[in-house]
Amino acid sequence: MSLIIPFVTGLIFGIGLVISGMSNPANVIAFLDLAGSWDPGLAFVMAGAVLTFGIGFPLIRKKQGKPLFSNTFTLPTSTELDRPLIIGAIIFGIGWGIGGFCPGPALVNVLSGSTQGLLFVAAMLVGMLVGVYRKS
What we know:
Elements: H1 4-20, H2 25-32, H3 41-63, H4 83-99, H5 103-111, H6 115-135
């Protein structure tokens, strides 16, 4: 039972990515192409997500005080913009701009049989392992 909720949540997220077109890396690259044929679609998807979270999260915290499937909210404790965070954000941005993928859409593409998605996820996993072993 404990794996059903994350599975359903991920499935809904993946369906949303497909419906919005954000699982297609060409749409992401078109959003980042300010000098060419710019497509604002990703901005609308982001705005919808930020608006939903911005309204929903405070309401849930106020009304319930805790998440539905956990005892507490797990929130970041640090607000510091340190060097690893900035370097990681730069690397993520470069990879996102080159490949047109971030982790969610890449996983959707792997499940659809995309070679590009598979290569991205493999590189992402290597990067995650490097990050974990670098910390220890």
